[in-house]
């Protein structure tokens, strides 16, 4: 009988004692022992951080005898480590993963509740405290202490435990940045950062009672805001080699897991869906998705269906033109380049700092890094890691459109059918109703138009090849829609921002149509064997819009086309007209349909 899968389990002891399937990452303990005094390990959610912290707690904790948990694991072969460290250290373990609240008061209450529980768990140290220390200790257990006493609580507990056991303490803090991200999302970042910063600063800076500390989280929050004065901090992110194979699953571990459960999948399919991560140069698969693949016995977007996407969705929705343009490129399989700041500054997200946004996307698992493009400058080439994450981006864009009831298919039907006046009316209503949704700041109306392009890239991908800001024959078109059904019409859309020297918005729109013709944007569509092409120029000035098109009567007919039009009006034979003028029959038919 096969071992049960550890779905929903993050407690190492129960997992081992219940004989559940466990990918042996126990040598992490050896690497932690041999690394710095204070370690910060950042990885995406559900990549094994909590389970690893739990494993270390059961390994080091002096109050327990857990030799049976480790006998079958790789770490047990390290006899020197087993002899010196297995259940030989006082351990302070605290998790912040459940500290989630939309207001400061509740977050404060949740935090002091965790600290109170921590003190209750170690109340045996009361035996070595003096009366004054006992008084403060009891005020924390009863949740009646003041903030300065809470801020000193972890440091003081390490002092008491060192006094009790005569040994320095190991501190394990899981998901340390959860309350910080929550505070940023709900508008009380500045207030909570002081309390959290002081709590960690007191526990980690110059703490003579500390043997080692290991913190895990998704991001490395800036030293200035939370790790002030912690000079002995050693950081492991997805960019460096430290612990690079200890979180997530390696290719060999995935193959071993699938083989154990007698699952045969095309390797390329599993790679496409769940691989793509680069942790310090090691190829890593998403462990949560692999486990669920084995359980459900089918490919699916398991990681993306869990919680934790809200901030990423918010940043895409409210992103600048550059962010939306880059997201569109990523969705088209291209790469983007950005400086990655390993020290996360949440405050910069508020001002749409591209650097901070791409850093968050990378550290959270929504991007992978391919290479460092400028060594020493922290500039990296970034891409979407796999199909599962790509689906998240696509769903996010579609959700943005659905929330504002933007039906791209409906808008384009009128255009494709030649009903240009109806298209203009629908598009102008769209801009009036939805511009504020995309243009959060009120300062960049282009966000709406780039958001619309992004929506096209996702919403119309079944029917069209969508290209935007691509090099065409002589220039760049904003949007080119190439129909997959060659009987449909190709579409070129050029967005023009109004400038005063153009005098009127109509002039601006006409200049856009002229640019489409002069730059020969249609050549890219013609290369696909499609000659029936609709050209649209959309000029905008904030919420005002003017649209001109080659569907407008006589907008852009050449002299020969005007001659052909006269022949068509006289109902002459279309084949003869084509021979005389050199105009393709399909185009003549289109001209005839619009008479």
UniProtKB/TrEMBL annotation:
A Pfam family: PDDEXK_9
Domain spans labelled AAA-ATPase-like: 6-227
PANTHER family: AAA-ATPASE-LIKE DOMAIN-CONTAINING PROTEIN, CONSERVED PROTEIN, WITH A WEAK D-GALACTARATE DEHYDRATASE/ALTRONATE HYDROLASE DOMAIN
Name of the protein in its database record: AAA-ATPase-like domain-containing protein
Species, as recorded: Tepiditoga spiralis
Phylogenetic classification of the source organism: Bacteria, Thermotogati, Thermotogota, Thermotogae, Petrotogales
């Amino acid at each position: 009988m096969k071992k049960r899968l550890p779905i929903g389990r993050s407690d190492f002891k129960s997992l081992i004692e219940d004989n559940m399937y466990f990918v042996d990452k126990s040598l992490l303990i050896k690497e932690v022992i041999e690394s710095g005094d204070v370690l910060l390990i950042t990885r995406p959610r559900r990549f094994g951080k909590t389970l690893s912290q739990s494993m270390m707690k059961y390994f080091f904790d002096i109050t327990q005898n857990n030799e049976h948990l480790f006998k079958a694991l790789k770490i047990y072969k390290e006899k020197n480590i087993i002899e010196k460290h297995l259940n030989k250290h006082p351990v302070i373990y605290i998790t912040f993963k459940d500290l989630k609240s939309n207001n400061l008061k509740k977050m404060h209450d949740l935090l002091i509740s965790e600290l109170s529980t921590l003190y209750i768990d170690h109340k045996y140290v009361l035996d070595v405290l003096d009366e004054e220390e006992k008084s403060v200790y009891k005020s924390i257990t009863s949740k009646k202490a003041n903030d300065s006493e809470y801020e000193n609580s972890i440091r003081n507990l390490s002092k008491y435990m060192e006094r009790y056991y005569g040994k320095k303490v190991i501190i394990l803090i899981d998901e340390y940045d959860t309350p910080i991200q929550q505070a940023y999302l709900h508008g009380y970042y500045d207030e909570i950062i002081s309390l959290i910063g002081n709590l960690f600063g007191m526990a980690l800076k110059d703490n003579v009672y500390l043997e080692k500390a290991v913190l895990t989280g998704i991001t490395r929050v800036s030293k200035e805001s939370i790790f002030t004065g912690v000079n002995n901090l050693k950081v492991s992110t997805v960019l460096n080699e430290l612990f690079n194979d200890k979180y997530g699953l390696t290719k060999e571990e995935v193959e071993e897991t699938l083989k154990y459960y007698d699952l045969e999948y095309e390797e390329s399919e599993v790679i496409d869906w769940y691989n793509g991560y680069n942790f310090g140069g090691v190829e890593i698969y998403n462990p949560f998705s692999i486990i669920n693949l084995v359980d459900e016995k089918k490919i699916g977007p398991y990681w993306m269906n869990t919680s934790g996407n809200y901030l990423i969705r918010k940043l895409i929705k409210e992103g600048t033109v550059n962010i939306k343009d880059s997201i569109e490129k990523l969705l088209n399989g291209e790469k983007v380049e950005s400086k990655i700041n390993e020290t996360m500054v949440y405050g910069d997200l508020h001002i749409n700092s591209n650097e901070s946004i791409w850093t968050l996307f990378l550290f959270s698992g929504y991007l992978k890094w391919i290479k460092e493009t400028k060594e020493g400058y922290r500039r990296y080439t970034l891409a979407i890691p796999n199909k599962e994450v790509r689906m998240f981006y696509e769903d996010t864009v579609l959700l943005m459109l659905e929330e504002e009831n933007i039906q791209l298919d409906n808008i384009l039907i009128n255009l494709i059918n030649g009903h240009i006046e109806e298209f203009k009316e629908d598009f102008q209503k769209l801009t009036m109703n939805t511009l504020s949704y995309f243009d959060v700041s009120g300062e960049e109306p282009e966000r709406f138009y780039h958001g619309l392009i992004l929506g096209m890239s996702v919403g119309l991908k079944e029917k069209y090849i969508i290209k935007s800001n691509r090099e065409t024959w002589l220039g760049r078109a904003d949007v080119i829609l190439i129909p997959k059904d060659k009987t449909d019409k190709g579409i070129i859309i050029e967005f023009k921002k109004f400038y005063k020297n153009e005098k009127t918005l109509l002039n601006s729109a006409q200049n856009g149509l002229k640019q489409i013709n002069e730059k020969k944007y249609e050549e890219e569509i013609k290369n696909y064997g499609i000659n029936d092409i609709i050209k649209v120029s959309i000029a905008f000035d904030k919420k005002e819009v003017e649209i001109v098109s080659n569907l407008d009567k006589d907008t852009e007919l050449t002299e020969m086309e005007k001659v052909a039009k006269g022949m068509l009006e006289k109902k002459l034979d279309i084949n003869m007209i084509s021979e005389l003028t050199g105009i393709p029959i399909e185009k003549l038919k289109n001209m005839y349909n619009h008479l």
